[in-house]
Request: fold
Amino acid sequence: MGKVKVKRVVIDTNVVISAFLFGGGPGELIALWKSGRIQPLASKEIVDEYLRVLTYPKFRLTPEEINFILYQEILPHFGIVRAKPGRVIVGDDPSDDKFIRCAEAGKAKTIVSSDHHLLRLKSFGAIRILTPARFLAELGGKGGHP
Reply:
């Protein structure tokens, strides 16, 4: 059997939060990154946003739960890249530019997102922007296995 190429991906905040707190399709991504089937990438700005959103009162997470998610579940598995600033890409929500810049810096071909501003773009150069369901289907269905 040939060696399986690991897909480098950037995962939007809404998908990461859904994966941990609500499971479902986005939750399948956790097994994929823990098994090394995908290599998620993040920049400092993205990690900061993950942390900020995890602290939202509506999620009712304790500091210990937040630390566990960040330091045990995310950071050991995510490649950290340095994204360069540039012109605005997502005119309706320039704060989403960080995901495209991260994908560019880390040479990822895919952004996994549920954000309508990003999904409306469909792609940026060679970077495709897919919903979690579409990304999982392209990997071969449930759990990403053919």
About this structure: The chain has one domain: 7-141. Helices lie at 13-21, 24-34, 44-54, 63-74, 97-106, 116-121, 132-139.
